Amino acid sequence: MQSDHLISFEHVTKTFITWDGETHAVENVSFSVNEGEFVTLLGPSGCGKSTLLSILAGLIKPTNGEVHIRNEKVTGTSKHIGYMLQQDYLLGWRTIKENIFLGLEIQGLETEQNQKKALKLLAEMGLLSYKDHYPSQLSGGMRQRVALVRTLATNPDILLLDEPFSALDYQTKLKLEDLVIDTLRRKKKTAVLVTHDISEAIAMSDRIIILSPNPGRIKTVIEIPDVIRTPLPFASREVPEFQSYFQMVWKELNYS
Q: Could you give the CA distance from residue 22 to residue 16 in angstroms, rounded to a whole number?
């Protein structure tokens, strides 16, 4: 069946077999993401958020169901997708410049033009003067900005963000949220974020998919209104409606 959606999850279930038996990570999950949309998977630990991201990235296969990108079934990793994780995984023996070229090397895209684009991205992140430094010489927030450049350097259509700010101090995290959203809007990218941070989800997203745990199922979907979505994340937290959406999401997550 043809779809206008960029990403489609269709009745996805994932069961892991361990020595203790079967573990149902996610069960019968269906949702779609439109081009240019920012969607967040939100829920407590153990609800299968990262499992869904790994299935979308083609790193693991669903037990049942299918995932499609541009109406093509995901059967393995794809050049359409960039992945940004909680840890930056920069290679300590390579300079910053060499690190941001890594994806280009792996995909055989290391042309002079692509290298120039990657360095331009590094300049946009305010880090061009650090191109000959090594990762150990940079702060955690700077390293995550480098990781973002490395991810965007191959020009993926879809960015997967697996709690990319959770290891950072709060001030750095807030600055990076703004930087990521501003960059993705300008580059017209589609993103799927995994987090358990309610404020982060509301501030960054067009839509929040709340998962219930053990196994992960979609509990509810919350559309974020334009009044919150339009400003950058830091400013959106000051919008009067923000608090009512925080309470709404909090209630859906069933925190006691």
A: 6
Give me 237's structure tokens.
């937290």
Q: What is the DSSP pairing of strand 72-73 with strand 207-212?
A: unpaired
The answer as to whether 202 is a domain residue is: yes
Which pTM does this prediction carry?
Answer: 0.90
- For residue 84, give the nearest of 14, 148, 178, 20 by alpha carbon: 148
229: domain range?
A: 1-80+196-256
Integer Rg of the chain from CA: 18
Q: What's the CATH code of the domain at 229?
A: 3.40.50.300
Lookup: tokens for 162: 């697996």
The dihedral built from the CA positions of residue 229, 155, 173 and 220, taken in this order, carries a sign that is: positive
DSSP H helix total and E strand total for the chain: 10, 10
SS3 3: coil
Q: pLDDT tens across 87-128, in order? A: 778 889 999 999 989 888 888 888 888 899 899 889 988 899
Q: How many Å apart are CA 48 and CA 42, to the nearest integer?
A: 10
Residue 114 burial (CB count, 10 A): 17
